[in-house]
Amino acid sequence: MAKSAVDVPIPMDDDDDLKEDAGDAQKPKEATKGYGPVRRRDGEVRSAEGIVFRPAEVDQVVVEMEEEDAPYDKPEFAALTPKEKGIKNQLRRITVPAHRLTPLKASWMSMIQPLVEHMKLQVRMNTKRRAVEVRNSADTEDIGALQKAADYFKAFMLGFDQSDAVALLRLDDLFIESFEVKDVKKLNGDHLSRCIGRIAGKDGKTKYAIENATRTRISLCEDKIHILGSFGNIRVARDSICSLILGAAPGKVYTKLRTVSKRMQERI
After folding, report:
1. What predicted TM-score, i.e. pTM, was given to this entire model?
2. Less Cβ around it within 10 Å: N or C end of the chain?
């Protein structure tokens, strides 16, 4: 018997939702504690896609280090020769003033001994040019030996003794500073002579006191003053000499030097 149009229900949008709810009600409820794979007591892990992960037993692997019998030796290389270092033959010429020619002749052997024996330099006196010529040789090892030798002779020409000037060859932190009395104060005639006498003192007493307190060496050449020493010591000696040039009493300078020397000893 054919059904009429009245008996056939018209599908609605809400009918699909009702079917899904009915289907969910018929399925058994699974205990879902959360998202991700489920781990069992035997160690298996089952993912949501049905993949089973089982633990595998791995044997313990022992890594043994090979012990060397002898420690590692550093490579040893032979020292470079002057030719391999690229040292070329160089010359230094130091002019000799007229008033230092006689002292240079008297102490010539003691002057050249450390240069020839220790630094392996070649030294000669050029009488025509009145100059000392120093050059390096094939046996010279230090690159800076030539410049040290030039500074050594320059210090002697400025009026320092050979025993004081030789310190420039042994130490690296020694310098020479030179200035004139007129750089501090303009003095002429007798005023300049009295100023130089005040710096030197009676029998060089003031000069020696400044040298011993500051560990420097001072050379007075007319109105020029040369100081040999380290950077800090030169500054202290220069300040003391400038105070004497400006007219300070030697007693005040001595007192200041005592305090400064005590501070320097405390630092050391």
Report:
1. 0.65
2. N
